[in-house]
Each structure stands twice: as C-alpha cells, then as structure tokens.
Design goal:
The complex is a heterodimer of chains A (116) and B (115). Chain A is mostly beta strands and 116 residues long. Chain A has strands at residues 4-7, 10-13, 19-25, 31-37, 43-51, 54-57, 64-66, 76-78, 87-94, 106-107, 111-115. In chain A, 0% of the residues lie in helices and 48% in strands. Chain A is globular, with a radius of gyration of 14 Å. Chain B has strands at 4-6, 11-14, 19-25, 32-38, 44-50, 55-57, 60-65, 70-75, 84-95, 100-105, 109-114. Classes of the chains: A mainly beta (116), B mainly beta (115). Chains A and B meet through strand 5 of A and strand 5, strand 9 and strand 10 of B.
Chain lengths: 116, 115
C-alpha cells in the first residue's frame, strides 16, 4: 500500500493564480481531511469529508474548495492564491469513528506552497 | 484560553535523560487524547494514545488527568532518535452518526537529544 500520497511536493504560485493540490489514499478510508501548518502554529483543519460526495468546512476554509467524487481522492483547490496561503499542506485519512472509538489518522508527506 | 496548549520548548536534553512534556486542553467534552510525533519537514505520525488509567509503551509513558484537563508524556532514557516535535492532540466527536470528529492539535514541543 502506498498509504496517503500528495502531489506536488513543492509549488510556487503568484498572487491570484489558482491550483489544485492532489491527495489520494489506497486504504479505503472513509474520512479524509486537509490541514495547513504554519510556523509557530498547530495544524489547522481546512476541510474534511466523511465519504464520497460529502464534504464540510473546518476551522480555516476561506479561499479553499474541496470535492470528493471517489473514496480514494480528495483534492484541495486554491481559488485565487494569496501570500497568506503560504504554508505546508497535509492531507490525512482514517476510518470513520464508530462507537466512540477513534481511528488513527494517516498523513501524507505534505505539499510546501509559497505564494509570491 | 487556547484550546490545546503546549510548552513550545525547545527541550535540549542529554542522551539517557528523562524528559516530560505537558499539555492542557480547554474543552471538558473532549473525548480522546493522543501524542503525535513530527520529524523535521515530515508528516505527523501517531506515537501513542492517552488513557485515563495511564499507559506505557517501552520508554514512553502517557498520562491523562480529566479533572485538571491535562495530558503528559514522559520519555525515559532519551535516544538521539527521539529528537522531534511532539504534538498533543485532542478529539471531540461532532456527529456520532456520521463518525465526524474534530481534532485539535497543539503547536508542539520540540525535543533535541544531545550526544
């Protein structure tokens, strides 16, 4: 199993450009999520999904869109990049929590994005 | 008060030392507690869960005090390979039917183990 994969690893954008960060997992996990990590900050949830066709906003959703057409893929789209979106982006997946039992989240290797 | 607070460190300790990290959380309805480890420029990985009764995994011991809303991680006999940032993670179940839950990460505590 490849686990959680993310592409690209690095990206430089100019202000106003749009792009899509790709995330895929091959563990048949229902739950997928996107986080951003900034220096001196904890990981902050952007968007998440509990299954194909179902997405919801996290703590910092503005400026980002997501879709979940398949169980495997959960792309994150930056609509009009801004310097404030310079960050490291992590995708994560897990089985759904059932019966109060938390399931470990597996993270992808991250995408380092710089917006000039 | 921030939701999950950790001492950012850095903690610089010699090999073989014992080091303890603390974490406090503000939401008393939080359900599950974890320590994740993040190596430099890498993704976070689960280190261990934290149970009310306390739990141990080799050189690592985790404790939870729900009354004080406090979590701890103790590392005994530190190794060079323990150098990393340790993230305190707290979960809150949002919708039990959909299995949707919120994870809140602390900012992390950086540990450097020195030869």
């Amino acid at each position: 199993n490849a686990g959680v994969t993310q592409t690209p690893k690095f990206q430089v954008l100019k202000t106003g450009q749009s792009m899509t960060l790709q995330c895929a997992q091959d563990m048949n996990h229902e739950y997928m999520s996107w986080y951003r990590q900034d220096p001196g900050m904890g990981l902050r949830l952007i968007h998440y999904s509990v299954g194909a066709g179902i997405t919801d906003q996290g703590e910092v959703p503005n400026g980002y869109n997501v879709s979940r057409s398949t169980t495997e893929d959960f792309p994150l789209r930056l609509l009009s990049a801004a310097p404030s979106q310079t960050s490291v982006y992590f995708c994560a997946s897990s089985y759904l929590q059932r019966g109060g039992q938390y399931n470990e989240q597996f993270f992808g290797p991250g995408t380092r994005l710089t917006v000039l | 008060r921030k939701e999950v607070e950790q001492d950012p460190g850095p903690f610089n300790v010699p090999e073989g030392a014992t080091v303890a990290f603390n974490c406090t959380y503000s939401n008393s309805a939080s359900q599950s507690f974890f320590w994740y480890r993040q190596d430099c420029r890498k993704e976070p990985k689960l280190l261990m869960s934290v149970y009310s009764s306390g739990n141990e995994d080799g050189r690592f011991t985790a404790q939870l005090n729900r009354a004080s809303q406090y979590i701890s991680l103790l590392i005994r006999d530190s190794k060079l390979s323990d150098s990393a940032t340790y993230l305190c993670v707290v979960t809150l179940l949002l919708y039990s039917g959909a299995g949707s839950y919120q994870l809140t990460f602390g900012k992390g505590t950086k540990l450097s183990v020195i030869p």
